[in-house]
Amino acid sequence: MKIVRVALDVPLATLFDYALPDELEADVGDRVVVPFGARPRIGVVLERTHHSAYQDRIKPIQGVRDDAPRLGGEWLELIRFLAGYYQRPLGETAIGALPPRLRSLKPLPRAVRRAQTDTGGAAARGGVRFEAGHVLSAEQQQAFERLRTALGSYRPFLLHGVTGSGKTEIYLHLVAEALAGGRQALVLVPEIGLTPQLEARFRQAFPDASISVMHSALHATARTAAWLAAARGEAHIVLGTRLAVLTPLPRLALVVVDEEHDTSFKQQEGLRYSGRDAAVVRAKLAGCPVVLGTATPALETWFNCAAGRYERIALDSRAAPGARLPEVRIIDLRSEPAEHGIAGSLAAAIGERLARGEQSLVFINRRGYAPVLGCEACGWVAGCARCSAHLVLHTADRRLRCHHCGAEEAIPRACPTCGNADLRAAGRGTQRVEESLAAMFPAARLVRIDRDSARRRGELTRTLDEVRRGEADILVGTQLLAKGHDFPDLTLVGVLNADHALLSTDYRAGERLFATLEQVAGRAGRRERPGEVLIQTRYPQHPLFEALTRHDYAGFAASQLAEREAAGFPPFVAEAVLRTEAKSLAAALAFLREAAQQVPVPPDIRVYDPVPNVITRRADLERAQLLVQSRSRPALQAFLQRWTEKLFESAPRGLRWHLDVDPIEFD
To answer: Which residues are paired to 315 by β-bridges?
Structure first.
């Protein structure tokens, strides 16, 4: 009897045996339809055999799907790695990595259903025209030549270039080299908002290339069509967010991860994988180089360079002739109070730019009007009924919103506790800053860019194009503007409310703040006109700000790594967090305490006591977590494998839990 072992999207860490009827032919990597419980399911064949422990009871598969290419061995190896490292069921990982249309029993829509092409496809024919946008500088050329020599073999690189150093131009030249050999390239970006801009650059550079764009905002049909083009070898370039790393590419020759430090590369639900780390594994399996590009590397990446695992290539100068890094100055709010949140020297600097016809960016990493609406008479504060968090005031549509669970409600006419009608907004968000600037500079053209203003499809792209054409004087924005954007006329950046991250209990807060501020500072002075950055703070002597004024990432990283080593934090230890959500906090903590006793804990593993999350209640569920650490990553992985097997067997119903390996969030 011919038997296939099939991975199914079920919460069990096992494969399922099915008989293969004589009239059907299925091999490893095929998608098949199998009976499971009360209804059929889509599965992926991972093994073939002639023996099964359930030889007399196994059912036959019902069909083989031939509407997509067979999943190749390299892709299956990646899925096996991700399932094993991040401790998720193999079937859940394999099926979850497919586009939704390919997980469905329904046939593919006519728009994407096409005859299978030859295995070579368009990518194998090569000869894609490359139109370079700029001539590489001497420094860029040197970096490109080193990276080009690595094509054809696995090697991880950190392309550490200051903001405006022309990393994207080097990516384009490398991709051109890969495509010239009839191969494919994978380029990852952290945010959907950056995808249209980078896509435009790539389409301009490769006008006759097939480019597949992959991100979660795509319609299911478009996403499936892009996936199929890549898997068939027809797409020359796959460009997308972290999910693009899961796309089959039969002739992969180059992997690029732009802004590799960005936390958006970490998936925070389902399979909690790091897109950056998966990209490194993907390159290793394909035998090709991976280029991690950024001005502010993740400390783990910097640590890997110091250890010799990655090769660092530096770009220390801006690419545009005459451009240099902006001057960073600190505004001490202890001696210079801020009116409506904006210090006088920052307001004066904005006025100077307006007089010269230059653009300014005011950065505050909080959207909405104000983070708190409260009553001064009785102390009432508007809070989310479903989360242990405040509601954020949004004045544009007169709503209070929770930025954690999405709940919203109308602004009350009076305090619900004491009836006081004089409710006050405390703190500032982008809407309130925009209002203050409009009052200060009534003739200026203001543009606010945050997730609220860019909700409609294409709105962000249109707004950014207007800014580049000089149709705005003052920009107000959040992290959407902090990276990847090039505004030729922008010469001033003002930073508000940077101090809150300095007071955080999260050991990664300083690293993230430095990266954010250095990235947003990099928007200023990217051409011949000098740039200036003004940062408002009550802690002007803090070492982070001193490093920023020197653009000294290396010095900042060295101090942070020394602190992490002394405290026993990553990258000097490996971590995992077991998290749970339950109707009551007592039930969540009880589950974690019981889970900690499920398997013996080796001496090289440390299991901490369970604690409530910082935001304990979210969406009507109480949340708690338990931290596990080890100085040996293999030892931690071995422990986690034994542990999760027990948890899948014994976890009570009605309680959600998940394991987060290499966590980056502790809220």
So the answer is: 161
CB 515 within 8 A of CB 160: no
**Radius of gyration of the CA atoms of the chain, in A:** 27
Q: 574-661, which class in CATH? A: alpha beta
Residue whose tokens read 């242990």: 388
Whether residue 186 contacts residue 238, with contact meaning beta carbons closer than 8 Å, is answered with: yes
Write out pLDDT tens, residues 61-96. Answer: 999 999 999 999 999 999 999 999 999 999 999 999
Structure tokens at 14: 């096992």
pLDDT at residue number 352? 97
* pLDDT at position 238 over 60: yes
Q: Which of 585, 579, 595 is nearest to 657 (CA)?
A: 579
What is the value of pTM for the model shown? Answer: 0.92
* Euclidean distance between CA atoms 320 and 171, whole angstroms: 17
Could you tell me if residue 506 is left (phi over 0), alpha (psi between -120 and 50 degrees) or otherwise beta?
beta
Confirm if 209 and 237 have CB atoms less than 8 A apart. Answer: yes
CA distance 436 to 430: 10
Round the average pLDDT of the chain to a whole number and report it.
Answer: 91
**Total Cβ atoms within 10 A of residue 528:** 11
Q: State both tokens at 186.
A: 């994978």
pLDDT of residue 455: 66
CA-to-CA distance for 572 and 564, rounded, in angstroms? 7
Fold agreement (327-370+427-562, 574-661)? no
Question: Alpha helices of 241-316 — where are they, by DSSP H?
Answer: 275-286, 299-306
Extract the tokens encoding 550.
């020197």
- Give the Cα separation of 651 and 657 in Å (integer): 8
The residue type found at 21 is P
Q: What are the helix (H) ranges across 53-127? A: 73-85, 90-96, 100-103, 121-125
Q: Which architecture characterizes domain 121-315 according to CATH? A: 3-Layer(aba) Sandwich (3.40)
Tell which CATH architecture fits domain 3-97: 3-Layer(aba) Sandwich (3.40)
Helix count and strand count (H, E) for the chain: 18, 30
Residue ranges per structural domain of the chain: 3-97, 121-315, 327-370+427-562, 574-661
For residue 571, cis peptide bond before it (omega within 30 degrees of 0): yes
Residue 317 DSSP class? S
CATH of the domain spanning 327-370+427-562, picked from 1.20.120.340, 3.40.50.300, 3.40.800.20, 3.50.50.60:
3.40.50.300
Using pLDDT thresholds of 50, 70 and 90, give the confidence band for residue 425. Answer: confident
- What pLDDT, in 10s, does the model give residues 320-353? 888 899 999 999 999 998 888 999 999 999 999 9
Single-letter residue type at 91? G
Given this model, what pLDDT does residue 105 score?
92
C-alpha–C-alpha distance, residues 295 and 198, integer Å: 17
Helical H runs in 329-458? 344-356, 430-440
The residue ranking higher by pLDDT, 451 or 547, is 547
| pLDDT at position 117 | 42
Closest-CA residue to 6 (of 48, 45, 58): 45
Three-class SS state of 227: helix
